[in-house]
Design a protein that fits this description.
- There is one protein chain.
- With 362 residues, this protein is of the alpha/beta class.
- Helix content is 58%, strand content 10%.
- The chain contains 13 helices and eight strands.
- The strands form two sheets. Strands 1, 2, 3, 4, 5 and 6 form a six-stranded mixed sheet that branches. Strands 7-8 form a two-stranded parallel ribbon.
- It is elongated and about 100 Å long.
Length: 362
Amino acid sequence: MEDISLDMRCQMMLADYEQRRPSYEKLLDAIKALLKQYLGHEGGELTLVSGRVKKVKSLAGKLALKGQKYSSIEDITDLVGLRIVMLYNDGVEKASSIVEKNFDIDWENTVDKRKTHDVQSFGYNSVHYICRLTDKMAKENGLEELKNVRFEIQIRSTLQHVWAAVEHDIGYKSDIDVPSEYVRSFGRLAGMLELIDEEFSRIRMSVNEYRHRMEELLKQGKTDKIELTMDSFKSFLRLEPFKKLNERIAAVNHAEIFDTSLLPYCTILKQLGMKTLDDVERLVKERFDDAFHLARYQIGNTDLDIITSAVGIQNLCIAYLLRKGCGKLALKRLLDYLYGENEYNDSQAENLLNTAKQLGLQ
């Protein structure tokens, strides 16, 4: 700091800041905790909340360049700075709304850099709020003495955050002139990333709309209109379509049902030719008894007292294959998919065929 020349006024401001800096650290920790609390309701959309209190050396450099702008330390708005990174571009709007709702905003000094429309500044197109604590917030957090301290909150998307980090690493925004060919390359990449950022948000919104439509169709019982996908199957499982079959099978040995994921069966059902959730419902109705008798035959002479929630759908698939006249190879492939390839699956497929013949399923 010895090589930075400051006039007496700036030196006094710097000394004042050194005394106050521990209080600013306290303020930073409180704001970070509050932001995480407020933004936690956005689920997986929040990527990062970070912050810093300006270093004394950094402030000395700023005062050396712009000290004439400030009459006191309270005039400097970025001594405490925080950054919110949201996963998607539209998450920036949500986070902005939360910040505006919960903090006292200094609108005169707040800047929305997204409105510059400078494609080469993609990584810096964040929203920069200058804020203060509200009276209520200061009181609740024991920060009354810091109520009038202004701090900066930047909000950007993950892609903007990554882009800014890459630019900083390469030194693109340094004082060194960058050849025009690199400027053009950066401009092209920035434009592409901006489009990608917007497209991710658009796709996400479309997928959410699709999920809402699908949920509504499920409520209305219109399963014939819902394509069998991993998303729709996940929603379908919340209706517990295999519960009745599982309970009937469990009753054979008074067994306990252990919950396990049924999502892998979505792929199997599609391979069996099912295209809609209505096809899956039809499978349950048409093969319910077959699946029960298969399971009862297998566990009836055992002391098995715990079964998994997959027992119903697994035997439904087996019953479907048997009624279609499929042989040992098809059964083995099903077992290989579920449990991995091993020699036991071959003998198990043989046993299933013998069972099917005894039960008249083939």
